[in-house]
Design goal:
With about 350 residues, this protein is α/β, with parallel strands linked by helices. It has 10 helices and 9 strands. The N and C termini lie far apart (about 40 Å).
Length: about 350
């Protein structure tokens, strides 16, 4: 991965990874899509890009489709198991094909892969906006617009699984936990999964990249219920029957890291001081701590969880490797377990 790209992804997907929302729980895959397609572009033989008009986002949204065998000849009733891959904090829906090369995976030839983008720093949540709510409603966008649209018009079926790196992993886990049965399996790579434990970390990251973190999820002391409302650890009961794959680097240098150090984020000095020996990525070290906490809670419930914590930072291409580790679990859910 180019160093400049690595650094940008660290800032955008790692520094401000939190989501929280004060809106009520959204239902899974409603029948009527509230967004519409403005443009459809074929990027390659199997790759289609959609541009949507999104009321929830207050503007356009983009979705990439990696199509399965026979998709171009589909009839009105044809449906495929569907894997949703959620973008990280930079919102770039193309990362899965440009950096992680999912189109090269032979296992996905029989699966429709849906890769929605989102606004920069969207956090897969409906923004709190200092109590006013309103756009961007990123979680509403996914649940009310993307999923219904691809299920109605593009051959997506009711067997669903989801994965995400960084902020995308937070979004996938958060929706799976709050809407049991939405996904047959879910995976998260280098994601904050219990962010209310480290609010200063995520607010500092938001400020560092020029985002008003308080507009997204509120003040952690005054709006702590909003933070808690979207915390996957807090909703772990909703994952009792969903196979989960959790992976994170521990913040020490690993084999897939580039030579450049991760940028220091002002306001995280406490967490830097508390970091263990050899930690060079406090963002990933915090993600690892939260990953272990959620894994422990799921294990205590006898929930089906697999956990992999490894040497690595937030800038490396570990999502490429970890998706391949998680893929057997995700595909087993898609092929063996119909979801409502």
């Amino acid at each position: 991965m180019p160093n400049s790209h690595a650094r940008r992804r660290t800032v955008l997907t790692g520094a401000a990874l939190l989501t929280a929302a004060g809106t009520s729980l959204l239902g899974a895959a409603p029948a009527r899509a509230t967004g519409r397609v403005l443009a459809e572009r074929r990027v390659s033989e199997r790759l289609i890009e959609l541009t949507m008009d999104s009321p929830a986002l207050g503007g356009p949204g983009r979705v990439a489709l990696l199509t399965p065998r026979g998709w171009d000849r589909r009839g009105p009733g044809d449906r495929w198991p569907t894997l949703y891959l959620l973008a990280g904090g930079d919102g770039d829906h193309t990362t899965w094909t440009t950096l992680f090369r999912v189109q090269e995976l032979a296992e996905l030839r029989e699966v429709l892969v849906v890769m929605p983008g989102m606004p920069l720093f969207g956090f897969w949540t409906d923004w709190w906006n200092h109590g006013r709510q309103g756009p961007p409603g990123v979680r509403t966008y996914f649940l009310r617009e993307v999923v219904p649209l691809v299920e109605r018009d593009y051959g997506a079926g009711p067997r669903r699984a989801a994965a995400g790196e960084s902020q995308g992993g937070f979004g996938a886990l958060g929706m799976a936990a709050r809407i049991p049965g939405l996904f047959g399996a879910v995976a998260a790579f280098g994601a904050p999964v219990h962010p209310i434990r480290h609010p200063e970390m995520w607010l500092s990251g938001a400020k560092f990249v020029g985002v008003d973190g308080y507009a997204i999820f509120g003040d952690p002391w005054e709006q702590w219920k909003v933070w808690l409302n979207w915390d996957p650890f807090h909703h772990a009961d909703g994952l009792r029957d969903t196979p989960v794959y959790l992976a994170s680097g521990d913040g020490t240098p690993g084999p897939l890291d580039g030579p450049d150090p991760e940028p220091h984020i002002p306001g995280t000095e406490k967490w830097v001081a508390l970091a263990g020996p050899g930690v060079v990525s406090v963002t990933e070290a915090i993600c690892a701590e939260e990953t272990r906490m959620l894994s422990g809670r799921l294990t205590s419930m006898r929930a089906p969880v697999t956990t992999h914590v490894y040497p690595g930072t937030h800038t490396g291409t570990y999502g490429y490797r970890e998706l391949r580790h998680a893929l057997p679990m995700l595909l087993a859910a898609l092929h063996d377990r119909p979801r409502r």
